[in-house]
Amino acid sequence: MDNDSGFTDIPTSFYWVIITMTTVGYGDIFPISGLGKLVGSMTAVSGALTMSLPLPIIVSNFEKYYAKQNLDDQLKNRRVRVAEMKKEEEKIRMRELGYSTGDSSIAELMKKERGVMLFKSPSSLLKIPIGQSPSPSLTIV
Question: What is this structure's pTM?
Fold first, then answer.
């Protein structure tokens, strides 16, 4: 074993591996005693764990949000396509019935039809004229 390498024993080699893998130091300041190297190693490992343990949770939440956003976008696009298809189908049916392809409302189409009668709303039919009783049993004497 080469004494100039700095790896004098196994714990020192482990310290070097941990510090190198966690990339926490430049090597300009380092502990000399075994206890200092142990504390430095534990600090490096705990720092790496502190950064790496929450990462799967963050990625999982991002993945759920991204999937939900994609589904919402697909639903929105589908609704737009369905609305366009309904408009196109309505135009085709109106053309087949002999109506112009202009943007006509149903009320305008009903006015153009012969024999169509526009009715009053049901609530207007229920109004009782003033002075008349709705039934003979409720007549006030």
Answer: 0.40
